[in-house]
Specification:
281 residues, alpha/beta, Spore Coat Polysaccharide Biosynthesis Protein SpsA, Chain A, 7-stranded mixed beta sheet, two-stranded antiparallel sheet, 13 strands, 42% helix, 18% strand
Length: 281
């Protein structure tokens, strides 16, 4: 029986070059540590941005109309993320590993694929229980949903929120994505909140009893995008100037990984003085 491949999936859209340059490093670092049988898919409205990766990365065009449809009747922006992962699952049997663009792989990924084959599911890391967080947005979400039953799932103060920078399910677990979509829609029917998609993934995958953190394999630098972006720009510029091909670029990323703090707390005056210096608009 042939081995089921692992399919790494990104959903990248719009015209912000920073996001696409981050996606380049997410792809290169993941390709540096993925097994030879792995597949790589980018769902995007600008597939020509990813021609450099062809044919090893399959860039799937996603039209504006499709993205509008993916938002559903609620119009919820991040519902598209669930739909993108589901669409990648329709390309054929595979373990699915969705990656946000601000992700860097750090070590060989074969053990993660083996765990997916054995029934484990992954998100990046557990962040908080709904009833425990003191952040205003989290408290708002708790007031909205704790004590409700949505799509057959009881939401309690102990319901855990996991970081959705990585969402991974085995080939036999694809129905969890359908459950996450149903949960997201049920949450949106209660009220609006930007974290409904993240909570939907968290609740759906947690219900398996097999949800594990993926942070052993990946860094998620959402807390220091500015710092990482500086290093990404420099590394990509060096690759361009030296005319590296894809294999050489993968080797470069493996040999010289970007190392910065994942979380930097920037005060208001950081932005103020950066604006004065003309570093930001």
């Amino acid at each position: 029986m042939p081995e089921v491949p692992t399919r790494y999936v990104l959903f990248v859209f719009g015209d912000q070059m920073a996001v696409h340059s981050q996606a380049y490093l997410a792809l290169l670092s993941t390709m540096a540590y993925a097994s030879a049988s792995s597949e790589f898919v980018v769902l995007t409205d600008v597939p020509h941005y990813y021609r450099w990766f062809a044919p090893r990365v399959h860039a799937i065009p996603v039209s504006a109309g499709t993205m509008t449809e993916w938002r559903g009747s609620s119009g919820f922006f991040w519902r598209m993320k669930i739909q993108a992962v589901r669409a990648a699952g329709e390309l054929g049997p595979a373990h699915l590993v969705y990656l946000d663009s601000d992700i860097l792989a750090r070590q060989p990924l074969a053990p993660m694929s083996d765990a997916l084959a054995a029934g484990a599911v992954f998100m990046h890391e557990r962040e908080f229980a709904l009833g425990a967080s003191r952040r205003r947005g989290h408290r708002q979400l708790a007031r909205q949903l704790v004590g409700t039953v949505c799509a057959g799932v009881a939401v309690t103060a102990d319901t855990a929120m996991w970081n959705a920078g990585i969402v991974a399910v085995g080939s036999q677990q694809r129905a969890l994505l359908d459950e996450a979509l149903a949960l997201c829609d049920a949450f949106s029917a209660v009220g609006s909140h930007t974290l409904h998609e993240q909570l939907a993934f968290s609740a759906s995958l947690s219900a398996t009893g097999q949800l594990r953190p993926a942070r052993a394999w990946f860094d998620h630098y959402w807390g220091n995008k500015q710092g990482f972006q500086e290093s990404i720009n420099a590394q990509l510029a060096g690759m361009l100037i030296r005319g590296l091909d894809l294999d050489q670029a993968i080797a470069e990323v493996r040999a010289h990984p970007i190392q910065r703090p994942l979380m930097v707390r920037r005060r208001w005056w950081n932005r103020y003085f950066a604006r004065l210096a003309g570093a930001i608009d």
